[in-house]
């Protein structure tokens, strides 16, 4: 069978959504899957180099890899009233040129942050190191992502929600915040691409349908960095029913993110999500 190299982040939602494949709960007659976990910006950079067949990405990266990767509908994470947080030490005031730690150049939070704070001095760090960088005074502020948004030092406070920046820029007040998605290499045969998306979608569906037992297994095997209470809260935010397959509303949100980037000179071309999805209707027409 053809091996598909899949990359995902080590945060709880990605591990949860992919675990059904690792555990053998879902599989394929024509494809086998191997996986690697790494922080999201490392995966963004790897996608620019075309290293993996299927990979988790920040949605903000996608216009840079559109020629080499199609966009998958599944294993997506959106914010809806929540998202990454800009934090600082309590009782401090940020100057216009404050020094800030972001989790990566191509992350969605970085795209929105740069538009909102054009004078900020940015350094990039692994998302696990950002809180300590603020506490130590190495930077004036930092944007927390993943599980870090659930719990951080009492010495810190939220300066601004990235969600609020999104709301100011998006226009349409119904659109959720596109954070993480999945991309698939275009060089794969179309039948393999369709099968790959189908298997990944089933994995996310099965994980969602068996949330309680799968969560217990991840905690027992120490595959996640949080306790049960935080895990359930985090999965409710980022690995839920809306992660299984993107809706029309979510696709509109992704398109609006691309428009915002284009309008602010981040992207040289304006692209749309729909033409870059895997054309699953191909199998229906072939088998009819």
Automatic annotation (TrEMBL):
Residue ranges of coiled coil: none
Pathway(s) of this molecule: Quinol/quinone metabolism; menaquinone biosynthesis
Q: Which reaction does it catalyse?
A: cyclic dehypoxanthinylfutalosinate = 1,4-dihydroxy-6-naphthoate + dihydroxyacetone
EC number per UniProt: 4.1.99.29
Q: Cite the Gene3D superfamilies for this sequence.
A: Periplasmic binding protein-like II (3.40.190.10)
Q: Which UniProt keywords apply?
A: Lyase, Menaquinone biosynthesis
Active site (record annotation):
146
Q: Name one GO molecular function term.
A: carbon-carbon lyase activity
| SUPFAM superfamilies recorded | Periplasmic binding protein-like II
Q: Per the UniProt entry, what is one GO biological process?
A: menaquinone biosynthetic process
Please tell me whether the keyword Lyase is annotated for this protein: yes
Q: Which family does it belong to?
A: Belongs to the MqnA/MqnD family. MqnD subfamily.
Q: What does this chain do?
A: Catalyzes the conversion of cyclic dehypoxanthine futalosine (cyclic DHFL) into 1,4-dihydroxy-6-naphthoate, a step in the biosynthesis of menaquinone (MK, vitamin K2).
List the protein's name. Answer: 1,4-dihydroxy-6-naphtoate synthase
Organism of derivation:
Campylobacter devanensis
| Gene of this entry | mqnD
